[in-house]
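Quick one:
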Amino acid sequence: MNRIYPNDLPQFLRRYRIPGGRWRAVRIAHPAEKGVVVEFRLSVRETIADLGAEPKTVRLGLRLVGVEEYRFQMRPNQPKIRITDARISYLNNLFFVNLDAWALDAGEQPKIYDFRASEVYAAGRELWGGVIEPMQPKS
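Output:
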C-alpha cells in the first residue's frame, strides 16, 4: 500500500468506484508504536479506462494509522455487505473514512458530523491505500 496525502486524495478517489463495492474485512490493531490502526478490505471496481471494456474488479485495502476515533455499529437484522455510498475526506488534520454515507444535497460538502453520524467510520492521522494482490499458491 502507498501513503495517500491530502492533495493525492481526489486522484485516488477517481481511480476506484467504492460505492457499489463489497466489504471483505475490517481489522482493528493496537501496535504500540503506531497507536490504533484500522484496516478496511474491499472489493471495488476500477474506473472505466476504455469505453468498450468492462471495469476490472480489484481488492482494495485502506489503512488508517494513528486512529483517534472510530465506530462500527452493525445491527444484526440489517446485514450490510454492499457499499451503497462512501466518503473519504481530510478534515481537521484527520482522514475520515465512511462506508455507509448519507446522501448530501447537490454541491454540499461533507462535514465532520456527517461522518460521526455514520454506523461505520474511522478517523486517523495517516491514510494508506492500494490494490491488494491475491496470494499466489505455493508450488
